[in-house]
Amino acid sequence: MNKGQSLSAEQRSKTVLSVVLGIICIIYVLPVLTVVLNSFKVNTFVKTDTFAIPTGEMWAGFQNFIKGMTFGNYPFWKSVLYSTMITILSTGLILLFTSMAAWYIARVNSVVCKGIYFLCVFSMVVPFQMVMFTLSKTADKLHLNTPWTIPIVYLGFGAGLAIFMFVGFVKSIPLEIEEAASIDGCGPLRTFFLVVFPMLKPTMISVGILEIMWVWNDYLLPYLVLDINKYRTIPIHIQYLKGSYGTVDLGATMALILLSIIPVIIFYLACQKHIIKGVAAGAVKG
Fold first, then answer.
1. pTM of this prediction?
2. Rounded CA gap, 41 and 60, in Å?
C-alpha cells in the first residue's frame, strides 16, 4: 500500500469517526432540545406534538414560565434560594474537609490512613438506594433535615470522589516544599493553608464543579431528608407542579426544568477546561 492509499484510508476512518461522534452528540442533545421546544408550547400540544417546533396555536410564549413560577402556594424564589444555599454550603464543606483529609492521608503512610482511603473509594460504588432509608431516619434523629444542616449529609456522600482526586494530586506535590515550610516555623495548619492549599487549585476547581452540578440537580436526597412542606429545592418544586386529580401542566414543568438547567449548562461550559485539567492532575499524576 502506497502513501496516498494510507492517507485516504486514514481520512475515511476519521470521517466515519466524526459521523459516529456527531450522531452520539445529537442523541445527547435531543432531550435538552425537546425541553426547550416544549417549554414554549401550550400544554395540550406537549403530548400530541412533542417534537414539533412551537408555531401558531402551539406557541405559548413565556406563559409557561410565569405559570410555573407562580403555581401553588409555595413561591419559586424560595426554592431557588434553598437550592443555591444548599449547593454553596455543601460544596464549600466538601472542598475544605476533604482536601484536609486527603493531605493527611497522602502524607501519613499508616494502615489506618490506607484503610480510610480505601473506604472512601469504596463509597463511590455503593448505590444510594441501599442506604437511603437508613440515612433519612438517621438525619431525622440528628436534626440534619434542614437546608443549613443537610450539607453535612452531602459531605459524607461527596467525600469519596473528592478524596480520591485530592490524594492523587497531593502525592504529586514534592514533600521538600512542606519540609521547607516546617523548617521556617510553620505548623501543620499553616503548612496546609499557606503552602498546600494554593497548590490544590486545579483539582479544587474540578471537584467544585462536579459537586455543584451534582448537588444542584439532586432530587432524591432532599426529598427524603427535608420537610418538603417547609423546604423545597428546585427539583422538588418542579415535581409538585400538579393540579387537581394529579394532572400535570407539562408546559410549565418543561419551562422550570429549562430554568433549572440553564445555570448548570452555562457554568459547565465556562469551566469544562478546568474539569479536564483537574481530573488529569488528580488521577494521572497520583
1. 0.85
2. 5
